[in-house]
Design a protein that fits this description.
32% of the residues lie in helices and 20% in strands. The protein is α/β, with parallel strands linked by helices. Strands 3-2-1-4-5-7-6 form a 7-stranded mixed beta sheet, sandwiched between helices.
């Protein structure tokens, strides 16, 4: 298996405007996120990275939204996403808009987000699709070193595997095309060939299942069984 950890990136975009056609990607991502964001509830929404900070999340019912990253104008908390300065199980939802794409250790970011998320918390991940019109640029010499082709383009299956190991239930996953030079072409691919879309989007929910039954539930079960047995004896006595 190819390791997820890699070297530091020489060029990391601090804004969607630094990505060719990046504003198109940002607007398309914000549009596709609205149905998922409208279902979120809680007290705290964490947006990790500069690209996440620029995503429009006004439709989300969570009022307290915090942008965290190493550096940027829209950030309220300056911190390394590899070591989030928040208590465990204190965040209701987390947005990782292309955060893993330019991360040297995406596994660690996922573990950190999992640590701060509450039980049944939400994790939203987006990234570029390797098997798309955009992904072809990685095969062209010289182009693969430029933004956005220098990013890590993880397949959805690989991301689903990581989320499964962290015990997350995938609520929604999709791909959609963004072709700035032809809107109709982008719509056609998104409708009929979504697997070839430039952008991947995964919405997952943290699940926690107790492995050991607590004493209160065990005692309640015993009381219920005794009651059933007593009723059976009473009925048999009346029949005699």
């Amino acid at each position: 298996m190819k390791p997820a950890k890699t070297r530091q990136f020489r060029q990391v975009p601090e804004s969607w405007s630094q990505i060719p056609c990046g504003e198109w990607y940002r607007d398309a991502l914000s549009h596709h996120l609205r149905p998922a964001l409208s279902k979120l509830y809680g007290f705290h929404l964490l947006k990790v990275g500069n690209l996440s900070a620029e995503i429009d999340t006004e439709c989300c019912a969570i009022s307290h939204q915090v942008n965290v990253g190493i550096g940027g104008e829209l950030l309220q908390v300056h911190a390394d996403p590899l070591s989030l300065p928040f208590e465990s199980k204190s965040i209701d939802a987390c947005l990782l808009a292309h955060t893993l794409a330019w991360s040297s250790d995406p596994h660690r970011i996922l573990r950190e987000v999992d640590r701060v998320l509450i039980d049944d918390g939400w994790m939203i991940i987006s990234g570029f699709n390797l098997f798309s019109v955009l992904g072809i640029g990685k095969l062209i010499p010289g182009v693969h070193r430029r933004i956005p082709w220098n990013s890590r383009m993880f397949t959805q299956m690989r991301l689903l595997d990581w989320l499964s190991l962290l015990n997350y239930e995938v609520m929604e996953r999709t791909s959609f095309q963004v072709l700035p030079w032809n809107r109709q072409g982008g719509k056609m691919i998104s409708t009929h060939l979504p697997a070839l879309g430039c952008l991947n989007l995964i919405v997952a929910r943290k699940r926690t299942f107790p492995l050991i039954r607590n004493q209160a539930k065990r005692a309640a079960t015993k009381r219920q069984l005794r009651a059933v047995g007593a009723t059976s004896q009473y009925r048999e006595g009346r029949r005699e």
